[in-house]
Amino acid sequence: MNAMIKIDEVVAGYIKDVDILNGISLYAEPAEIVCLLGPNGCGKSTLLKTIAGYLCTRSGIVWLNGKDVSGVPVHDKVRSCGLGFVPQTDNIFTAMSVYENLLMGGYYVPVRERDKRISQLCALYPVLERKLHAPAASMSGGERQILALARALMPNPRVLLLDEPSAGLSPKVLHEVFDAIMQVREQEGVTIIMVEQNAIEAMRISDRAYILSLGTVALSGQCRELLHDAKVRELYLGGRVD
Ligand SMILES: Nc1ncnc2c1ncn2[C@@H]1O[C@H](COP(=O)(O)OP(=O)(O)O)[C@@H](O)[C@H]1O
Ligand SMILES: [Mg+2]
Description:
The protein is an alpha/beta fold.
């Protein structure tokens, strides 16, 4: 199997002797969208932080494009390993303009290439073009998520980790943000691992899902199968799926 990202029996946590991730394993293939679902506190954000390198693995291996990156800190993963990370909150600089936010995202991009990349991202997401020199604080919730996404895309990552990109958005705006996520997969072939609370909507745009429980995988599979599995619906998705 040719995984773009692979997590092998990873154990991690914040406090000594307390593990939050309990030997979790999963993978994503090139250009796949994989969603991570599960109740509050089960370790979804912790897993993304561990993959990104904000948190050290206690054991297990994080593979990125065939390379063991378990001990690589986050700035090196962004600079040299093709990883992008959009945290759940505080993912843009509201005091700066949209353009300045994108420049910050391109910190490791050679100066002469930054404006070209900003133009590409403005073509992908026209809302950025319209607001390029406005303060990011003037953007709506959905626009901010698209800016956060674009900021992470500045260095052309091969893998993007998204923590609850639809948090706090109305259903209409959620679809705009999910469209933006699908678009970048289609146009740039980025592999996406996305944590979501809106399980059904997330599974509609994802190829596969992992449902986590207590820092390990409780269930996984192709979304089109999970969405129509009566037991999954009853246990995890709150009943009917139309
Ligand atoms: N910075 C932290 N320090 C200590 N414990 C934390 C920290 N962040 C999260 N935790 C704990 O780790 C567990 C998993 O949290 P998290 O990964 O944020 O869950 P999820 O994203 O699935 O809601 C929870 O018990 C939470 O209290
Ligand atoms: Mg979380």
